[in-house]
Amino acid sequence: MFKEYGQYDALGLAELIRSAEVTSTEVLEAAIARANEVNPTINAIIHRFDERAFKQIKSGLADGPFTGVPFVLKDLLAAFAGEPLTMGSRGMTAVPNYDSELVRRYKASGVNIFAKTNTPEFGLIITTEPKVHGASHNPHKRGYSTGGSSGGSAAAVAAGIVPMAHGGDGGGSIRFPASWCGVFGLKPSRGRNPLGPDQGEDWQGAVAEHVLTRSVRDSAAMLDCSSGHEIGAPYNIAPPSASFLSATQREPKSLRIALSRRPLVNTGVHADVEAALNKTAKQLSELGHEVVELEPAIDIERFWRDFFVVVCGEVAAMVEGYKSVYGAACVKQFEPATKNMAMIGRSLSAADFVSAKKGWHDIQLAMGRLLENCDLMLCPTVPTPAVPHGQLPNSRFEELLMLASHRVNIGKLLLRSGLVEQMASPVLEKMAFTMMGNITGLPAMSVPLHNNQDGLPIGMQFTGRMNDEETLFSLAAQLERELGFTPAADVAS
Hints:
Layout lengths: L9 H9 L5 H19 L2 E4 L1 H10 L10 E5 L26 H8 L3 E6 L33 H8 L5 E6 L5 H7 L2 E4 L20 E6 L2 H11 L17 H4 L8 E4 L11 H16 L3 E4 L6 H27 L1 H5 L3 H12 L2 H21 L5 E5 L15 H10 L5 H7 L1 H12 L4 H6 L3 E8 L5 E8 L4 H14 L11
Parallel strand pairs: 2-3, 7-8, 7-9
Antiparallel strand pairs: 1-3, 4-6, 5-6, 5-10, 9-11, 10-11
């Protein structure tokens, strides 16, 4: 048995395999052994295909920078031919007969895919507690949320099952669980990674897919493998000046970093997070960067509404699409919150949708102006450390209200009454710093720099200029090297 498996990142494992110090089979066996050991405790993985992974080794994995490295896919968006895609829902049993473009590029990098990870239904909530698969547990503290929607992937990396896992981010869903599980998570620029062939963009460009990792260099090297234009995509963004991996190997220049303390939703910031933010600002100054307190000119009263309106419209269209393909019986099994968001989306007009998208432009403009005079913006990733299970999903009473009303298009009335804000506030408050990156399309990363006294990780978020992941990777590598990252979780039973 390859006992040192957990000591290496993905590039490190690939180098061992390349130099014949270990075999791809031994590395896969180590990943499976770790999954068998910890997954019953954390419930990060919900579907395994070990034998297929062994057969992939025999038939020959692609020759790439990650050849032979075990890898897991989030059970959302990423179609892997022949394996079920439930998207965290009781109503879905799709088995695609094709690979999504991103999965095709992952396979070309040489990774050996052997499992799917847990996710909330359709990625619509920022905690991984779906009814169909049950809750994923934070590897740092059982009974606590991993965050979401890439919570299963973040937990799998934090617990040492794999050094790198696929994720997706529509409102913070890579960065949020990265923060709470203590791993590195970068949401790339809009259009950097492919979303085809099923769609050119998702949630009006808010969604971006990438990986969660233990090391910065793994994230950069995988973005080198996965990024680039695809046929039919609406965006064709500028390539990096050199490889993203090379950006991690060079010292960043002295950066001017805007420090933002204000949540973009009406909520407070936990004292532990505030202390971590202040410590980070001090550390950045000591590393030679200029930190200036500066807030983007964003109307926080309108901010969440414009995001919510667009997402509800997207959910309504999604539900109608699944109904037409899979039938009403499929939709009947969707969770109450999904049905309720679809109802709100149906209640709104095309004019409401366009007005909300204009609000998105105002936010893009505000951030563009801020980043004219600063290289990056620093803020917390999440306003609080991880919370216990049960705090973020709707209560049973709220779900009953949703089930009683989801067939009647009263969404506008609910929005005006304040009831939607009241019921959604536990989730929206936690997304107070991450949503902005999805609305603007700007690249943003959560860096695992701190823990509180309870041992719960606290990530710091850095947002860069459009198409400038290189500066983010360069700074993240410096922080990893000079300050160190949150240690891997010692999974408790």
